User: Which sequence fits this backbone?
C-alpha cells in the first residue's frame, strides 16, 4: 500500500485492504502440498491482509472453546472447520451449537462470516458412520449459511474423484487445493 492509500484508509476508510481471518483445519492449512491455499489466496490478492489461524487437526469442537475470547479484527472471518469433527463423531446438534456460537462471535466483532463447506471424502474409503456424520455436519453448515445469509464457498461440491486426493484419501492434491483457494476467493469477494 503506498502512502496516499494509507492516508486515505486511515482518515476516510477509503482504499483500505480487505482483512481476512482464516480459521480452518489441515485442508485450508495446506497439509502435504507445496503451495497452501492461504499462499494461493495471498498471491492472487496481494492487497488483502490475511490472518492465518489454520492448524492441522483442528476441530470446531476444540476451536470454539477459545474463539470467543480471541481478538477478531478482520472484516471477513472464514470458518473452514467440521471434517475432523465429523470423523470424530461429534453429534450434529453439538456442531450446530458450536457453529452458531462462532457466527455470533464473528458478528459481534463486526465482521462477516464465510463458510467453506466440508470437503467431500470418498465414501468407499471410510466407515459408513463417518460418512453419514460428515453428511449431517455438512448439512448443518449449509442450513446455517442459508438461514443466516452467509456466503458458502462450496468446497463440498468440488470433489472430482480420487485424483483430487493425496494417498491418505483425505488431504487434497495441489490442483484440488488450488481450486479450493479459487472458490474461497470468490466467496470472500461476494461477502465483502
Assistant:
Amino acid at each position: 500500500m503506498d502512502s496516499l492509500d494509507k492516508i486515505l484508509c486511515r482518515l476516510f476508510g477509503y482504499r483500505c485492504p480487505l482483512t481476512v481471518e482464516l480459521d480452518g483445519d489441515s485442508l485450508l492449512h495446506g497439509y502435504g502440498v507445496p503451495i497452501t491455499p492461504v499462499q494461493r489466496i495471498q498471491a492472487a490478492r496481494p492487497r488483502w491482509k490475511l490472518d492465518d489461524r489454520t492448524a492441522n487437526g483442528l476441530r470446531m469442537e476444540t476451536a470454539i472453546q477459545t474463539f470467543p475470547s480471541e481478538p477478531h479484527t478482520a472484516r471477513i472471518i472464514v470458518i473452514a472447520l467440521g471434517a475432523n469433527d465429523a470423523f470424530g463423531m461429534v453429534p450434529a446438534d453439538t456442531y450446530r451449537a458450536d457453529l452458531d456460537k462462532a457466527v455470533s462471535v464473528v458478528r459481534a466483532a463486526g465482521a462477516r462470516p464465510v463458510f467453506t463447506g466440508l470437503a467431500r471424502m470418498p465414501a468407499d474409503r471410510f466407515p459408513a458412520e463417518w460418512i453419514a456424520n460428515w453428511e449431517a455436519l455438512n448439512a448443518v453448515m449449509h442450513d446455517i449459511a442459508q438461514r443466516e445469509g452467509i456466503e458458502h464457498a462450496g468446497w463440498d461440491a468440488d470433489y472430482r474423484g480420487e485424483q483430487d486426493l493425496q494417498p491418505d484419501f483425505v488431504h487434497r492434491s495441489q490442483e484440488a487445493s488450488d481450486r479450493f483457494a479459487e472458490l474461497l476467493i470468490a466467496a470472500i469477494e461476494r461477502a465483502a
Remarks:
- The chain has one domain: 18-191.
- The chain has a mean pLDDT of 94.
- Residues 87 and 114 are 22 Å apart (CA to CA).
